[in-house]
UniProtKB/TrEMBL annotation, chain A:
Entries under InterPro entries matching the protein: Aromatic_CoA_ox/epox, Ferritin-like, Ferritin-like_SF, PaaA_PaaC
Organism, scientific name: Anoxybacteroides rupiense
Pfam family membership, one: PaaA_PaaC
The protein's name in its UniProt record: Phenylacetate-CoA oxygenase subunit PaaI
Origin superkingdom: Bacteria
PANTHER family the UniProt entry points to: 1,2-PHENYLACETYL-COA EPOXIDASE, SUBUNIT C, PHENYLACETIC ACID DEGRADATION PROTEIN PAA
Automatic annotation (TrEMBL), chain B:
Protein name: Metal-sulfur cluster assembly factor
Lineage of origin: Bacteria, Bacillati, Bacillota, Bacilli, Bacillales
TM regions (residue ranges): none
One Pfam family matching this protein: FeS_assembly_P
Domain MIP18 family-like, residue spans: 12-78
Organism: Anoxybacteroides rupiense
PANTHER family referenced in this protein's UniProt entry, alphabetically: FE-S PROTEIN MATURATION AUXILIARY FACTOR YITW
Length: 311, 108
């Protein structure tokens, strides 16, 4: 039996990988790729949140938002710290990588328009993070990551609950109610895209074979829908999805994927799209990708210049 | 936990449904609630937070009000936040302590 099959069988039977000596090259590459996506996603969630945090309605709300951003930096640190142990040069990764090569979701390449969008961001996107990382916490074969996720799991729950509080409170105000609906209209499908290509279009997944995660993309999407849809229904927000009794799962009421107008942050639901085109859109990046990554790199670059000038 | 009169026991129970925003531990098991008094149709809650810099004070107060106002006879909820005595881990209930332990958080 070839070594990669043996490792795959071992991890499927509960073997926990602890270090480089336990893995093969394919496992290492899949793990690194996964952790880069996780670290980038955590870190790049902050620039969009910062675009509206000064619109917080009260000081305590602002402190909550800042506490959330601090958590996200901590989560990013965990992912990058794990990558460092795997031999990755973190300074290069953080400060020398070009903006378009960062692996954060497309949804994070946009400025937010108002405080309500920050709430929906927490309620939808942090829920996606909670769903994905909750799955990793439950199933991942990589021991160091599994142990680090105990804290992350709880903190993401805090973020998504903050989003729910903001949305629920806003729904009681007729004007803000409209803002919630407007935010949900573009952010709902955006959140569903976090989970990636449909299962039927994937030939194989190293992440699943090596048990870096447990559930498939479609299963994770269903899991997200199973809490997001009932929550939205409970507060009176309309979402383009419902539970289908016959199929025993959530189904969408609009084509998914479909085309997106990034300038107006609007889904063109009369124009169904393919996942190939969605991936192309992801790779082209959203409007603020460059600005957001440069903001993260600014301090390090200025310090480097200062050092050069001083010598 | 402060003194529990028979007329306020149900409100202590109700507040066991109000969770800390981060850990699924109630504000009662966290030891945040010092006293509940009933005055006509008004409830007076005396409580504290784990830190003066707690990022979720308004959020928790909103959740407490929301839950208590679900009781038909309650028309108003007054919340008085005090810092004396200060919160320490000694205020955690045995149940709260067990839950934190499960999540890998020390309560010593």
């Amino acid at each position: 039996m070839d070594p990669s099959t043996i490792l795959k069988e071992k991890v499927q039977n509960g073997f926990i990988v602890e270090g480089l000596e336990d893995m093969n090259e394919e496992y290492l590459q899949a793990l690194k790729q996964t952790l880069i996506i996780v670290g980038d996603t955590e870190l790049l969630s902050i620039p969009p949140l910062l675009t509206v945090y000064d619109q917080a309605p009260t000081l305590n709300n602002k402190i909550t938002a800042l506490a959330i951003m601090q958590d996200e930096i901590g989560h990013a640190h965990i992912a990058y710290r794990l990558l460092k142990d795997l031999g990755q040069n973190i300074d290069d990764l953080l400060y020398k990588r070009e903006p378009h090569r960062w692996k954060n979701p497309y949804a994070f390449d946009f400025e937010l328009s108002n405080w309500i969008e920050l709430g929906v961001f927490n309620a939808f996107f942090d829920r996606a993070g909670y769903t994905l990382l909750g799955d990793a916490f439950e199933y991942t074969s990589y021991g160091p990551w599994k142990r680090a996720l105990v804290k992350v799991d709880k903190e993401e729950l805090f973020h998504l609950r903050n989003g729910e509080v903001i949305m629920r409170t806003a729904m009681q105000d007729p004007e803000l109610r409209e803002e919630v609906q407007k935010a949900v209209d573009w952010m709902f499908l955006m959140a569903l895209e976090f989970f990636g290509v449909e299962d039927r279009l994937k030939s194989r997944s190293a992440q699943l074979e090596y048990r870096l995660k447990g559930r498939t993309n479609d299963e994770l999407r269903q899991k997200w829908l199973s809490t997001a849809v009932p929550f939205c229904e409970s507060i009176g927000v309309k979402v383009p999805a419902h539970y289908d009794e016959q199929q025993q799962k959530y189904v969408l009421d609009v084509p998914f994927p479909c085309k997106f107008d990034p300038v107006n942050k609007k889904w063109l639901v009369d124009q169904p799209d393919t996942w190939d085109n969605v991936i192309k859109r992801f790779k082209q990046r959203g409007p603020h990708n460059k600005q957001f990554v440069e903001r993260i790199q600014k301090g390090a670059k200025e310090l480097e210049q200062l050092r050069k000038d001083a010598v | 936990m402060g003194k529990i009169g028979s007329d306020t026991k149900k409100y202590w129970e109700a507040l066991k449904e109000v969770m800390d925003p981060e850990f699924p531990i109630s504000v009662v098991d966290m030891g945040l609630i010092y006293d509940i008094e009933k005055n006509g149709d008004e409830l007076h809650i005396t409580m504290t937070y784990t830190a003066v810099s707690c990022a979720c004070m308004e959020w928790i107060e909103q959740d407490i009000r929301h839950r208590l106002l679900q009781e038909n006879e309650v028309q108003a909820v007054q919340i008085n936040v005090v810092w004396d005595p200060p919160w320490t881990v000694d205020r955690l209930s045995p149940e709260g302590r067990e839950k934190l332990k499960y999540w890998g958080v020390s309560s010593k």
